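Forgive a beginner's question, but would it be possible to get a protein, spelled out as residues, together with the matching structure tokens, please?
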Amino acid sequence: MTEQDKSVEQNLERNKALNFSGADFSRIILSDLKSTTGGRAFLKKYKQSEIREIIEGYKLERNQDKLREISQILWAKSPQYQRLIEHYADMAIFAHVIVPSKDIKSLNKTKVLKQYTEVGELLKQMNIRHEMSKVLATAFKEDIFYGYIHSDAKSFHIEQFDASICKATAVESGVLNFSVNMTVFLKNEKLLNGMPTEVQVKFRQWKILFNANKNKLSPWVELDAENTICIKVNENIREIFPPFAGSFDAIFDIEGFKQLRKDKEELGNYMILTQKLPIRENSDSNNDFLIDKEMFQYFHNMVSGIVPDNVGVVTSPMEIENIKFDQDRADRDGVAKAERDFWSGNGTSQLLFNSDSSTSQGLLMSIKTDEEIVFKVLTQIETWLNRYLNFKFKDLWFNASILPVTVINRAEMVKMYLENAQYGLPVKNHLSATLGFEPIETMNMAYLENDLLKMHEEFIPLQSSHTMGEDGVLQKGSDGRPKKDASKISDETARSQDKPNA
């Protein structure tokens, strides 16, 4: 081998040790900064774009089921959506009174009082505020509530039915009735064990007819109106459409901006250390490094092993510059803007849940609008309640009236009823109901305080110039404060006292 050949072979060996392939570099990457969110994947099952399409196609029954499911998931995952539902569901206090529905002046007083007492006791037993608050919570979340009544002489309870097996099928006395899909129990009859007796009986009857003629029998069987309650928020449309489905998109925006903010904070805490590989100057070969691959990897791994997790190490022969993506003129925190868009999008004031600059009058008007939404649903519940009372009493002389009172306007309504009662209007029961009394409680408390305990006679006002007699002692029937000594009154007062009474 000549000297020239030896030189060529040495150069080849050196180049082999110093030249690195792309695979060599890829194996020593310590950290790869990239988004781990995969976009705004707030829900595992549904993407933001898919939800938009589902809302647009809400008239399809399969999309209505999806909207209910999405609303349930968002209620569990979004604190803003949960607060929104609770705001409307818990607003009403269900203050109610018993009012005559017929002319009771000509009726027997004993019978009238007896029925009034029985209706009052039934309404007290129904625990309307507790049971109906649960109804509203589901209705505002899913648009519709299907319930079954369980009651006896001492208890009352509303069992919620799964909306996936129910469908509103009729209107009776202004109230929705619903049917149950019996094919669900045909596939799994064990599900009947937790259902009311009426459902079990009607399924057995339906099954006999189904086996006799499978092709012509409808799977839907309507339950007795006396035992059911069906309340729908959007009663002007037949389709199931959650009242705040229009805000689903805004919820995704909130979570998306939160993730962007998190990524920005993580990126701000990240550091990259760079090591520059020395390259042989005045060399005719590409990638002619001064150190070999083994030595290069040794130093890279040594530095990588001592830095914290949020520090990356890059070894490269190229210059690396720090590039920042600052947007000084843009809104730095899109979360706050997205939350404002969420509240304004569903028509509810953000001031109810956190502070923001606005006027108190604007907030008041927003609350009035919120109350009107709730009052429409209360009218449905009142209609159902009176239908239920008519099932319980053969000849009913009274109706239940749910007053337009909420936790927000309560003080205002107390003032209104009190002022009208002072002018002789028959609203004492309304005032008591607004203060939280059941009709039967108002009647019994008045009897207890006035007739039995005689508290209006026993409770003596504190002594003052308005309640003390002439001798300085509180007396019943006294004229008020003690009279002044004659020597201390003015001439004008004396002349007025001497004038004869007209």
Q: What stands out?
A: Residues 5 and 11 are 10 Å apart (CA to CA). Residues 247-321+334-343 form one domain. Confidence is low (pLDDT under 50) at residues 28-40. The longest helix spans residues 360-392.
